[in-house]
Amino acid sequence: MPTSALILVAAGSGQRAGGDRPKQYQQIAGRPLIAHTLENLVNAMNFDEIVVVTAKNDPYIRDTLDELKIDATVTNGGDARTKSVHEGLKAISRQSIDHVYIHDAARPFVNAGLLRPLANALKTHESSAPALPIADALKTKSGESVDRDTLLRVQTPQAFHYAKIKQAYDSLKKADYADDIAVAKAAGMTIQFTPGQARNFKVTYPEDFAKAENMLQKQTYIATGSGFDVHQFTEGDTLWLCGVPIKCGYTLKGHSDADAGLHALTDAILGALAAGDIGDHFPPSDPKWKGQNSSKFVDFSRFMVNKRKGKLQHVDITLICEKPKIKPHREAMRARIAELLELPLTRVSVKATTTEKLGFTGRGEGLAAQATVTIQLPVEGAS
After folding, report:
1. H or E, element range at 51
2. Which of 124, 144, 254, 280 has its Cα between 20 and 30 A from that of 111?
């Protein structure tokens, strides 16, 4: 299989978009535009090397790469796109790279449906690019008609045999070209156009941000899950509840540490994912879970969220008991859950109530916990 590299061009200032920072770092759906672009690219293809070309002293890119956990080389661009791409090509460190894909950071809706045809085209051609036909009638400023059937709207990513396009850029005879396909054409490289997508538009003007925001919202939905767990009290010194140890002269009976709060939370997350329940994944019949800290179960449920490319939005846990008193420990519980789920504290709620002395909790025989979570999940097939 050919090895591949990605060059993401993010060195522009984006002045036409307005705002107090370059457009690639302006927010769409709560995240920088470039974060959506990078995430969609790495989900669409397994690149062997990634280079991001930025303006000199870019203060934002490292935070974006850290958030996405993407290992990439960052290099400075030039005063024009052609120079920036050339710097990106020179920054590729692996000599064994076969193909390179060059993409604009301001096109966040890139997907596998765009990349696969590009890769196939490189089997027979030295370069490829997605393109769309022109639907509108075209005129010159003097009113003369232009044959639209001879024209295409060319998008990125554009793909190339790395050695060929690198040589073409190294031999440039002028400072700027319209795009990378123009460089390939000037160098005599063979070109294959593949089907483009209307949704793969370039965010350029202020109104484009509203359009992109609306499109992103339509690609996700909110899933809600609930969980409930009960454990009885037994002899002991310390019980665990919502990840916090409480020294109270008794404990909770269970195969693991019997943390009813974290068990209910785990079930709620799994429920939102339609991924079974805690007993399916951590059966009490399995001795390896005996005495296990329940944070392990929460870690697993968060892994499942990430596997589905989801994003936890909010957690609400209610503890039902006459004892122990929850209020002195509530903030520690919220902090621990926020840490486990990598959520802001403002998105974690822990409450307590009683059953007014009724039932097993009212008699002080044990406690119960219920949890509700919301998760933002991608619509299947949206990309």
Report:
1. strand 49-54
2. 124
Give the residue carrying structure tokens 């040589």: 167
Tell me: do 32 and 112 sit in the same domain: yes
Q: Are residues 176 and 157 in the same domain?
A: yes
Please check whether residues 193 and 257 belong to one and the same domain: no
Give the pLDDT confidence of 247-296 residue by residue, as tens digits.
999 999 988 889 999 999 999 999 999 999 988 888 877 777 777 888 99
Write down the pTM of the prediction: 0.62
How many Å apart are CA 144 and CA 338, to the nearest integer?
64
pLDDT value of residue 381: 47
Q: Is residue 47 part of a domain?
A: yes
Low-confidence ranges of the chain (pLDDT < 70): 13-20, 218, 380-383
Check whether residue 210 and residue 233 sit in a common domain: no
Predicted local distance difference test score (pLDDT) of residue 105: 94
Phi, psi of 148 (to 5 degrees): -70, -20
pLDDT of residue 278: 87
Q: Are 186 and 45 in the same domain?
A: yes
Q: What's the 3-state SS for 49-95?
A: EEEEEECCCCCCHHHHHHHHCCCCEEEECCCCHHHHHHHHHHHCCCC
Long-range contacts of 203-207 (CB under 8 A, 24+ apart): 203/17, 203/23, 203/28, 203/33, 203/106, 203/107, 203/108, 204/14, 204/16, 204/17, 204/23, 204/106, 205/16, 205/17, 206/17, 206/18, 206/19
The count of domains in the chain is: 2
The residue range of the domain holding 237 is: 220-378
Would residue 383 count as lying in a domain?
no
In this predicted structure, what is the pLDDT of residue 383?
44
Q: Which residue has the tokens 């295409």?
A: 152
Which residues are bridge partners to 5 per DSSP? Answer: 49, 100
Say yes or no: 212 and 228 in one domain. Answer: no
Q: Is 57 left (phi over 0), alpha (psi -120 to 50) or beta?
A: left
Phi, then psi, of 222 in degrees rounded to 5: -100, 125
Q: What is the DSSP string of 228-269?
A: EEEEEEEE-SEEEETTEEEESSEEE-SSS---HHHHHHHHHH
Same domain, 35 and 182: yes
